[in-house]
Every structure is written in C-alpha cells, then in structure tokens.
Structure prediction request, 402 residues.
Amino acid sequence: MRFLSTIKVALRALRRNTMRSMLTALGIIIGVGAVITMVSIGSGARAQVEAQIASLGQNIITVFPGSFSAGGMRSGWGGSATLTPEDGDAIVREVANVVGLSIELRDRTQVLANGLNWNTEVKGESPDYPFIRSWPIASGGMFEEQDVNNIGKVAVIGQTVVDQLFPDVDPIGQTLRIRNLPFRVIGVLGRKGYSVSGQDQDDVVIIPYTSHMRRLSHRPYINAILVQAAKPGAVEQVQQDINDLLTQRRQGREPDFTVRNQQEIAEFATAQSRTMTMLLAGIACVSLVVGGIGIMNIMLVSVTERTREIGIRLAVGAHGSDVLAQFLIEAVILSSMGGILGILLGIGASESVSWYYKWPVLVPTFWIVVAVTFSAAVGVFFGYYPARKASQLDPIDALRYE
Prediction:
C-alpha cells in the first residue's frame, strides 16, 4: 500500500510540471526513436538481401575462378579465368549428394529481334540452370543436354527481353540474333525481379554453354560453376569435397578457384549493411545518454525546489527510503514514458521512410524490448543520485529552507 501511495505522489508531482516533464523526456524519446528507426531500416535491408539470396535457389554452392597466389599476389573472386567445363564434369562424376550443376559463362551484348534491338546479358548455362535457381519456365521449355552436345542455337529469354523485343507477339519460335547469329527462342522464364546488387535478373538471354563458348565468346574458360546439394545438411560436405577434388585436379599447383556456399555469400552481402546499422544505432544511443543526463539535471532542480516539501514529509514520519523511492519512481516514469513514445516515434518514422522512399523496413521485437528496458535503466541510473540526495536531507534544515 505504501508503494502505491508513493507512485501516486510521484505522478502528482510530475503533473504539476507537465511541460517540464515532457521536455525532460524528449531526449529519451528522440534517442529511442532514432534507435528503432535505424535498426528497422537496417533489418529490413538485411531481410531483403537474404530473401534475394534465397531466391537464387536452395543449397547452392558456387565455384569462382581466381583467389590464387601468383608472385606474392592474390587475385580474388573472378580474378583469373582458369575454370573449365571439365571441372564441372568431374564434380558431377565424383562428388556425392550433387543433384544439379550448371556451367556458366556471362557476356553483355546487343541482341536483335522483331525489328528491335536491346543490350542484355547473354548467359551460357547447362540444362539444370532453372532447377538450380528455382526459376520456373513461364512458357515453352528449357533446352536439353542434346542441345548442349550439338552446340545448339536455341535460347531461353527473360521477361524484360520479352517486353523490349517482343511486346506484341509470342516470342516462342521467334528468331533472336546474337552477334549476328540466329538463335531460336524456345522458352520464356518467369519474372524474377532484381538481384542483391540491383541488377534486373529478367534482363537475360540463356543459351547452351557450349554455344556461348564456341559460337560467341570463343574462349576455353568459364565464369563459374553452380552446384546444388541434395539437402541443407550436405552443403558443407559437398563444398569440402568440391574443394578437395579441384585441388587434386591442379596436381599440387596453387588453388586457382574459390568455393562459396549460399550462406557465406549472404553473410558477405549483408556484412556492410549490418555494420552500418550497428554504427548508426550506436550513435543514436548517445541521445539516450544525453536524455539521461537531462533527467538527472531536472531531478536535481526538483529536489532543490521541493526541499521544504521533503522536510515536511520527513517530519511527519516518512522514512528516507520513502523519499528515495518517490524521486526514483519519478525518474523511471519519465524515462519509461519517453521510451514508449520513442518506440511509437521510431515505428512511425520507419513506416514513413518505407512509404516515401519505397525501402523495406522490419521492426524487430527484440529491439523494442531492449529500448523499453534501456530507457527504464537510464531512469534508475541517472535518477538514483538526485533521489538519494533528497532522502538524506535533514528534516530541520529542510523546513528552514526558503
């Protein structure tokens, strides 16, 4: 009962100076709001990147050329073209739990069809490519192994290429000219959207990798090998087996390839956004500290203004612990109220940013709990000294205070 009475006294004291109480809580409101906003935007961006990585397919392992030592230098992913189709064939033959593999070449070039032209990415791939990428065929079909063996002049195109070159006609069966070579369109991919890097994934023409190597690029090396493991639990083992196999095929030479699984690529893609989110959240936390100092300052002023009131309470039988609890509760109420309003401000600001800039946002429940807990802790930490000072006043000196 005494505790409830103390809370009522604390609330009554705060209501007597409503404007000052609101201004005192403003630092906490801004700090919590800034933290929630920054974390929500960062979490939304990270979730979008992870979703886009997942849309590339499940249990994917990618082999890149490069990342080898030569004269004391390391080239990094794609720094040296040394992978060959034979490496892909060896993986299919000798690595267990591989359910799909695509040999990949990439070039950007001008394509012509239906009296129109368009600059797009032309990929050489294996027939397993749509299966590995979880990319459905909207119409027609994918080329087969026979087309790869025969260096077939067939193509599967993305929706953007359809929009640009075949706006009014069915593209299936039409002729698409790539570097003046005719390719027959046999399939149209479903719409995929943008990639992690912001590239339009639908702006693509896919042909057999052998056709790309021998008819277009005329080069013996490939850009990447996409491998799909049978299940999530087999990814690490398949990755290690691929690494061991390709190392063995190099017969003691320095590794001239890099093997990465989907999770590693996702972590690499989200590392920068995660770092920036934590940095901005850390800067926003400074506002909480400043708000806590403001609470301490106002509570010290309040102790000075209410010295006679404190003396009267002590004189009629209140204990020092009662006075301590009253002022501590006032500080906690101020900071908690600021925390709650700050959460509402942060959610509102996040949604506004999402609506105006079309950015994805994700408000994590964990950070809401952290914000409320931290704001209450700020009230206890910065409110304790003024409350203790009030509880230690001498009743006689307090009653004499003018």
Notes: The radius of gyration is 33 Å. Residues 83-255 form one domain. Residues 89 and 101 are 9 Å apart (CA to CA). The first helix runs from residue 2 to 16.
